Amino acid sequence: MVRRLCMPITSIYQLHQLQSLLSPACLQSLLTFVVVLQEQLSDVRQLMQMTVDNHSKLDAARNELRPAALHGCMLYSLLSTMTAVNHMYQTSLQQFLQIMHLSLHK
pTM for the whole thing? Predict the structure, then answer.
C-alpha cells in the first residue's frame, strides 16, 4: 500500500483510489504540505539565483585585486631575498603588510 503512495499519480483512477484511501483531513494536510513545499522551492530558487549573482560579483572583485596581490607577492619575495645581500634589509611580514596597506589606501 505504501508503495502506491510513493509512485507518481498518472491517471484519474489512481487519484480516485488515493482519495478513497485517505481521509479528507489527511488530504487537506497533504495539499497544505504541497503548497508549503512549492513556496519553499520558490524561495530556494531565489536564494540559488542570489548565490550565483554573488559568486560572479566576488569573482569580479577577486580579479580586480589579483594584480595588486601579485605585485605584493613579488615585492615581498624581493625584500626577503634582499636579506641575503645585507641583514639591514631584513623586513618582517607584519611591517611589509603595513606598508602595503598604506600604499593601497593612497
Answer: 0.47
